[in-house]
Specification:
There is one protein chain. With 345 residues, the protein is mainly β. It has one domain: Pectate Lyase C-like (3 Solenoid), CATH 2.160.20. It contains seven helices and 27 strands.
């Protein structure tokens, strides 16, 4: 077992290396003068192949952007995350895919991505269009970290995926999101990534403006048993608008037969249905028996099903010892002993 001093030294070295990489080049979005660009995409294009830091001035920037370079740090310069907004209104129906609909697309080659103090949104549904998949952030880059970000959409707000798959396995992508806000209504966190949402706030909106329609926070899609994939809600709060009256709020539905989501010490202020989880397509799919949906320490109005052990029959009630295995630096460490909680700007 690695001793604490060696672990701390490794963390310092990792952080210093990452800082050196991202500090090589600094460019700006907004403002005027050398190194200032009108859009995130132009700023990304201006970075060298090794990445760099993009400082985004307060304001609203309309248009999609794609990041393919590693070690890109995207930092809002406003007094709060909502002061710096990246916005677009693409949808699966109009663009041809979930990824192409995204306001910001962070691809598998963009490992080491970091974002903070910024809002990324997709306004497609809010602008009166028919409900459709409309992604705010499409992320499948390993060792990605986001702090104090706001991700706003309706259906399929945030994609957290693996790097890619063969016919027998997938290459994991580890994603750590801390102290952030994510809003949506149907499957608004989806994909097969390995992600921890640490001390975040998740906001469930009415599905198509009706408190009677079904809402699902997650649609996790683990494809094989032999790679790291699954979402962890760690000390996270789940709210809803409205706070009462909704009866079909669920923590998730299994996009695949191996769908995996765990909630640890989370506050379920939304009126989560006692079952907690629902079949992906009731009457057609049968994924719940093989999905891994587990929970420990849930509190709040939506925790009644957990407290009374009346979640759907395949749900797992963890012990405190088992819950500790999902701590961010434990769950996401991988073979390189990555410690995402130490990665800060």
């Amino acid at each position: 077992m690695q001793n604490p001093a060696a672990k701390f030294a490794l963390a310092l070295f990792t952080f210093a290396a990452a800082a050196a990489l991202h500090a090589q080049t600094i460019v700006f979005v907004g403002g005027t003068g050398t190194g200032h660009y009108a859009s995130v995409q132009l700023a990304v294009n201006a970075l060298p192949s090794t990445g760099g830091e993009i400082k985004v001035e307060p304001g609203t920037y309309t248009g999609q952007a794609t990041i393919t370079k590693p070690n890109v740090w995207l930092i809002g310069q406003g007094s709060s995350a909502s002061a710096t907004v990246l916005t677009a209104d693409g949808s699966n129906a109009t663009s041809g895919s979930d990824e192409k609909s995204a306001t910001l697309d962070v691809t598998k080659t963009a490992s080491g991505f970091y974002a903070s103090n910024i809002q990324i949104q997709n306004t497609y549904t809010q602008e009166g269009h028919t409900q459709n998949q409309a992604v705010a952030l499409f992320l499948y880059a390993d060792k990605s970290v986001m702090r104090n970000v706001r991700l706003i959409g309706r259906q399929d707000t945030l994609y957290l995926g693996s790097v890619g798959c063969t016919s027998t396995t997938c290459t994991p992508a580890r994603e750590y999101i801390a102290n952030s806000y994510i809003e949506g209504d149907v499957d608004f966190i989806f994909g097969d990534g390995a992600a921890v949402l640490d001390s975040c706030t998740l906001q469930i909106d009415e599905n198509q403006g009706s408190i009677g329609n079904e809402t699902t926070v997650t649609a996790q899609n683990k494809k094989f048993t032999n790679y790291l994939s699954g979402y962890v809600f760690w000390h996270t709060q789940i709210n809803s608008n409205p706070a009462t009256g909704m009866t079909k709020d669920y923590l998730g539905r299994p996009w695949s037969a191996l769908s995996t989501v765990t909630s640890i010490d989370s506050s379920l202020q939304a009126p989560i249905n006692a079952a907690g989880w629902i079949e992906f397509t009731p009457g057609t799919t049968n994924n719940l028996p093989t999905a891994t949906y587990s929970e420990f320490g849930s509190t709040g109005p939506g925790a009644v099903g957990y407290t009374n052990h009346t979640r759907e029959s395949h749900a797992i009630y963890l012990t405190s010892t088992q819950a500790n295995n999902y701590a961010p630096d434990t769950y996401l460490k991988g073979s390189d002993n990555w410690m995402p909680t130490t990665v800060t700007h």
